[in-house]
Amino acid sequence: MVRGRFREAGGGEYGGPAPGAKVAGATEPPPLPSCPEAADDPTADAARERRLLERVYTRCHAVITEVCAYSSVPAAFLAALVANESGGDPQAMRFEPAVYRHLKAVAEGRRAAYAGLSRRDFDAEIAEMLHPKAGSFHAVFLTGPFRATHARELAASRDEALRELATSWGFTQIMGYHLVGRSGTVRDLLEPRFHFRLALELLALFAERYQLDLAREFAEMFRCWNTGQPYAQTFDPDYVTNGLRRMEIYRSLESTGLGVVMGPVAR
After folding, report:
1. Greatest alpha-carbon span in the chain
2. What is the pLDDT of residues 36-66, one digit of tens each?
3. d(Cα 119, Cα 74) in Å, to the nearest integer?
4. Residue 64 near residue 90 (C-beta atoms within 8 A)
5. Among 25-34, 89-98, 177-186, 187-196, which stretch is predicted with the lowest mean pLDDT?
6. Is the C-alpha dihedral spanning 152, 153, 159, 162 positive or negative?
7. How many percent of the chain have pLDDT more than 70?
8. Is the pLDDT of residue 13 over 90?
9. Which of 145, 162, 263, 266 has the maximum number of C-beta atoms within 10 A of its C-beta?
10. Nearest to 167 by CA among 91, 239, 110, 113
11. Radius of gyration over every alpha carbon of the chain, rounded to an integer in angstroms
12. Beta bridge partners of 175
């Protein structure tokens, strides 16, 4: 379970991990390869990127290939999403305080609009998080119909359960609230096959909503995953560029396998 009381960014006590704090039971995602100190060394940066994708390949390739066989989403896209979101850590968890407050308001019967939280306040809380999803992403799902349909279920949930719903989980950092109204539990998101099948389902929902081609419009799909919209600005300005580059590295791994030395990745 997600436990503990920490100080939030503004200094007030908050019932859950502070931005950037380690969630109980979770392992911290490995550092992402775009370290400032290596920015002037393309060879070192390329090697770091390859190690990241090799980790994803080793941990995820078999199950990604299996689930993508029934989808038009290529395995390389899902693998790059893993690299962007968790660095290949299957136990990665990230508590999102703003989402918790929204869900708590729903559970208590208050008509709190997610859009009522200003962008400035939201950014201040999540500034130290690893690739947090933008407020617009959650606004796509935490709507009036969501509240009307699931208010009773949320009201019956204990506070710990609400915290789990307000946490992103696993390889692609799926929000716990996506399990509301679906079969399975939040902890099932730590099981790779279950996790990736739901990731594909969510991607298909984005494609249907915005009329996107899952087999071709990858930049738009990366933005959807991070912001909820295909043309919105991602929290990390390099999120899409990193994803597209990592797709290419993963494709090379699919064709050559592990252990083949590559030159620097073209920028």
Report:
1. 58
2. 444 567 888 999 999 999 999 999 999 999 9
3. 33
4. no
5. 25-34
6. negative
7. 64
8. no
9. 162
10. 91
11. 18
12. 168
The CB-side HSE value for 145 (13 A sphere, CA atoms) comes to 3
Flag whether pLDDT at 83 surpasses 60. Answer: yes
Q: How far apart are CA 167 and CA 213, in angstroms?
A: 29
Computed over every residue of the chain, the mean pLDDT equals 76
Question: DSSP characters for the chain?
Answer: -----EE-TTS-EESSPPTTPPPTTPPPPPPPS--GGGTT-HHHHHHHHHHHHHHHHHHHHHHHHHHHTTSSS-HHHHHHHHHHHTTT-TT-EEE-HHHHHHHHHHHTT----GGGS-HHHHHHHHTTSSSPPPHHHHHHHS-HHHHHHHHHHHHTS-HHHHHHHTEEETTTTEEGGGGTTSSS-GGGGGSHHHHHHHHHHHHHHHHHHHT--TTT-HHHHHHHHHHSSTTSPPSSTTHHHHHHHHHHHHHHHHHH-TT----PPP-
Q: Is the pLDDT of residue 258 over 50?
A: yes
* Burial class for 103, CB neighbours closer than 10 Å (0-12, 13-18, 19+): buried
Query: Which residue's structure tokens are 């299996």?
Result: 66
pLDDT of 138: 66
What lies within 8 Å, CB to CB, of 18 at 6+ separation is 6, 7, 8, 9, 97
- Nearest-angstrom CA–CA distance, 244 and 246: 5
